[in-house]
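Bug #77: duplicate submission created two jobs. Keeping one. Sequence:
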Amino acid sequence: MAPAVEPVEPPSALPMARLRLAPRNAVSLRVDGAWWPRSHHLLAELPSLISALPPEWGKIVTVTVNTQMWAEAPGRILVGHHVVRLRGESAWRRRHTVGLFELDHARRDLLVVPPELAQADAEYLMAAVARYNHP
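Kept job's structure:
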């Protein structure tokens, strides 16, 4: 039996994602940017992230998350008008990243800044990730 697809609010009702991406021409060492979700509830956070990504990133069809960081990680959710598969992994080395996969299997990784981090610290970390990845 396939897992149920979780419905999500339409994008117009979603809060703006707190996201900082490395410049397009950046040489990434490990991540393509940083994302600071507001909570550990993946179903509430992921739709705003996906809708905030630039069009050149393509259609995200699979997201890999660390199950230790999120309160839940269902098998798939509906974002906009398409289904996004969620794959949970428990590897400690990827605890603070999220992997975003396009239709052609291209992968982009984002550093996940813990939601409980103070605003000044989170903004500093996000800016440092974007700067560090700059050529």
